[in-house]
Design goal:
- The chain starts with a helix and ends in a 5-residue tail after the last strand.
- The chain is about 40% helix and about 15% strand.
- It is of the alpha+beta class and about 575 residues long.
- The longest helix has about 50 residues.
- Among the domains are: about 160 residues; about 80 residues, Signal transduction histidine kinase, dimerisation/phosphotransfer (DHp) domain (Helix Hairpins, Orthogonal Bundle); about 150 residues, 2-Layer Sandwich (Heat Shock Protein 90).
- It has nine helices and twelve strands.
Length: about 575
């Protein structure tokens, strides 16, 4: 299970992007393949139409097939098919590698639609010449074979030619009077009824017929395009795209194996499969970077939360400049701090006030009990009862003092009066006191001489006394206690080890909790209220150190007091 939100975000982004890229790649591959197939269909149709119009001009179809290989970009001659037939279906040329499964007799040659005449199919090959000015016998035809049953067109179908123009008749020396007031006889007018233009006198000559130039032959009208179509055939697991074209004279089929585009598509596929992992890695890395930037407000919130302590509950996190999604989270967090601060202050005020108010009456009660015990008869039942009550009052006094220390530590008001403190001398004195308090235990020590630190001597002696007292209470019969020190340039440690029956795994994290005792019955066989270790750790932390627990395999227990090695100046 992935526990990192950033990693999950990066992986999900990469998966989503990979799925998108795969869909895009498949769509692009399918689109490119269809485009290539459409291009092949268009090319085979175009070349089939062109070749069917050149059937009578091509003497060698093998060269034509080789030329088609080059023009169509076919690298293997086995991937190109060519079939040429005349109008009657007789095969003029067929590729030598024509697949046996492709029956040429079953090719669906295109046919003319209903209503197409013979002329639309290219059967009328004669083009008449505009010969309105030619004699009926002068008929001109377009070069080429004449259709069977052709006959000359009758002369009655042509309009009569216009009369020939006659030359002007000379009169009186060849001069022609063309004055406006002189009427000319009809035979002097030209073909259009206009008088002839003035001209010099010409010698009399016999009438001649002017040569009429023959008109130019009209270009033949363009023939209709051949019928064509493109089909697909699956022959022995291979797909062929075949272009079919036909006219009145011949039929041509040109086929290309789709294997020519499969090679290109494999290249595209391999390129995509090669770039896809790189793209996914880049997307994953980018998602990781962007998610890290998006997580900065949460990291800022976590750092601010980590710095919030019991004495710093008044701190608040600013939401200025943060994203809208995190502004609400920061506001909720600040409101939570306000509630915690208010509740903590109330609890601290109650415990501090209660401990403070109990000190005076307990001190008065303790003094009166001591005076009553002194006035009572020695060994009397009254004196024993008063002594038992005095012990309980002393316990309440100790409890109130410790509660006051804990409340001050929780509120950050535990004052540390640092002064030079000779740790080695204090430990040696405690070792001697322990030998007197527990004569049945083996007390040993390894204390380095001359260890002096800057600390509150009274509070630190209370911590050391609590650790040694705890080692005496939870020891075994005929057990042992060993007190040692270890020092480094910036830290000094005091290790209090004792023989023990061991501490259960479930209880090791609870020994520093308030009012927790290792004795499940909370009996009075072992004295204490379960506050000694809690108070000791708070005092150690107030000095900048800490107390940790270590349980050995043989059941022995070690409490390690670590303090900063601040030498007094």
């Amino acid at each position: 299970m992935i526990n990192s939100f950033r990693l999950r975000l990066a992986l999900l982004s990469a998966m989503l992007a990979g799925l998108t890229l795969m869909m895009f790649g498949l769509g692009s591959w399918w689109l490119i393949r269809n485009i290539k197939i459409d291009r092949i269909d268009s090319e085979v149709r175009t070349y089939a139409e062109r070749e069917v119009n050149r059937v009578r001009e091509i003497p060698d179809w093998q060269r034509t097939e080789a030329r088609l290989d080059s023009n169509l970009g076919v690298r293997d001659s086995r991937d190109l098919l060519l079939l040429v037939q005349d109008a009657g279906g007789r095969t003029l040329y067929q590729s030598s590698l024509w697949p046996a499964g492709l029956d040429i007799g079953k090719l669906p040659w295109p046919v003319a639609e209903a209503g197409h005449s013979a002329e639309k199919l290219g059967l009328s090959l004669i083009t008449k010449v505009q010969a309105a000015d030619l004699p009926p016998d002068d008929m001109v035809f377009q070069a080429g074979p004449r259709p069977e049953g052709w006959r000359p067109r009758p002369a009655d179908d042509f309009p009569p030619p216009p009369p020939p123009r006659r030359p002007p008749r000379p009169e009186r020396g060849g001069a022609i009077d063309s004055g406006p007031d002189r009427a000319l006889p009809p035979d002097r007018l030209d073909d259009f009824g206009n008088p002839p233009p003035p001209a010099a006198t010409e010698p009399v000559s016999s009438p001649k017929t002017e040569a009429v130039p023959l008109p130019r032959l009209a270009p033949p009208p363009p023939g209709p395009p051949p019928l064509s179509a493109a089909i697909s055939r699956n022959v022995d697991g291979q797909f062929w795209r075949i272009g079919l074209a036909r006219n009145a004279a011949a039929r041509v089929a040109i086929g290309i194996n789709t294997r020519v585009i499969d090679d290109d598509m494999k290249g595209i596929r391999n390129a995509f499969l090669l770039t896809l992992p790189l793209a996914l890695m880049l997307i994953g890395f980018g998602s990781w970077v962007f998610s890290s930037r998006a997580m900065r407000p949460l990291q800022k919130l976590a750092a601010a939360t980590r710095n919030v302590t019991a004495e710093g509950l008044g701190q608040r996190i600013s939401a200025q400049g943060e994203d809208l999604e995190f502004v609400e989270l920061i506001k909720v967090y600040n409101r939570m701090l306000e509630r915690l601060e208010r509740s903590f202050k109330q609890a601290h005020r109650f415990s501090a006030d209660a401990a403070h108010e109990l000190r005076t009456p307990l001190a008065i009660l303790q003094g009166q009990l001591e005076r009553a015990i002194n006035n009572a008869e020695d060994g009397s039942p009254m004196q024993e009862d008063l002594t038992s009550i005095l012990d309980e009052v002393r316990r309440l006094s100790t409890l109130s003092r410790k509660l006051l220390l804990l409340s001050l530590a929780d509120a950050g008001g535990l004052k540390i009066n640092r002064e030079p403190f000779l740790l080695s001398g204090a430990l040696e004195g405690l070792v001697e006191d322990t030998r007197m308090l527990a004569p049945d235990l083996k007390i040993t020590s390894t204390i380095a001489p001359g260890i002096e630190i800057s600390a509150d001597g009274g509070l630190l002696l209370q911590v050391l006394h609590n650790l040694i007292s705890n080692a005496i209470k939870y020891n075994i019969d005929q057990g042992w206690i060993h007190i040692s020190t270890a020092s480094w340039p910036k830290q000094v440690e005091v290790i209090v080890a004792n023989a023990s029956r061991g501490i259960p795994e479930s209880a090791r994290n609870k020994v520093f909790e308030r009012f927790y005792r290792a004795d499940p019955a909370h009996g009075r066989q072992v004295e204490g209220m379960g506050l000694g270790l809690s108070v000791s750790r708070e005092i150690a932390r107030a000095h900048g150190g800490d107390i940790t627990l270590k349980v050995e395999h043989d059941g022995s227990v070690q409490f390690i007091l670590a303090l900063p090695y601040n030498r007094a100046s």
